[in-house]
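Budget justification aside, the reviewers requested a transparent look at the raw inputs and outputs of the sequence design task funded under Objective 1. We therefore reproduce one unedited record. The lines immediately below are the structure tokens for a 182-residue chain.
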């Protein structure tokens, strides 16, 4: 679709007034220029909605006002975070990182001696008490505690984990690792 030259000329003639109106709405020269540019792009894209012989300026000003208002509503819900402090508080582990860490954990777990792995899974992942795990393994409670401690230490070493919060968000993994930092 081609733009009628007379409509194009009328649109160009309206730019200074559109710009002044946009500035009065936004309070910023740069934002005003962006609003006018977007208004003209929208008007050209929807020129078939304009009725020739009606007030082109009123149509353009309506487009600008409506666009400004919709952008204002969107921006009102946004939080300005120039220094990044707000974003720093909104930390969420991406799922793919958790999955990679879980695979690394499984690989490290498989390198533990069977008796350590068994004790760690019983106490850390399955939630058995040391006493219950000792009964299941057929050994003393102190032996289970020792095995769990050695297993946690070895896993932390293998995975270069200094303390539990550095490791992924999975509850079972945190339970197995226990409180490595203290």
């Amino acid at each position: 679709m081609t733009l009628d030259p007379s409509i194009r000329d009328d649109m160009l003639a309206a730019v200074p007034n559109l710009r002044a109106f946009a500035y009065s709405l936004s309070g910023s020269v740069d934002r005003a220029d962006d609003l006018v540019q977007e208004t003209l792009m929208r008007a050209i894209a929807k020129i078939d909605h304009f009725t020739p012989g009606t007030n082109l300026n009123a149509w353009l000003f309506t487009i600008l006002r409506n666009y400004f208002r919709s952008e204002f509503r969107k921006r009102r819900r946004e939080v300005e975070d120039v220094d990044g402090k707000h974003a720093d508080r909104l930390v969420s582990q991406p799922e793919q990182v958790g999955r990679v860490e879980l695979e690394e954990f499984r690989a490290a777990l498989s390198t533990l001696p069977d008796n350590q792995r068994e004790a760690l899974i019983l106490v850390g992942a399955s939630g058995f008490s040391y006493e219950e795990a000792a009964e299941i393994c057929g050994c003393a409670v102190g032996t289970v505690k020792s095995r769990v401690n050695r297993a946690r230490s070895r896993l932390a070493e293998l995975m270069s984990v200094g303390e539990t919060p550095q490791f992924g968000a999975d509850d079972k993994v945190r339970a197995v690792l226990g409180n490595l930092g203290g």
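The chain has a mean pLDDT of 81. The chain has two domains: 5-80, 95-177. Computational costs for records of this kind are itemized in the attached budget.
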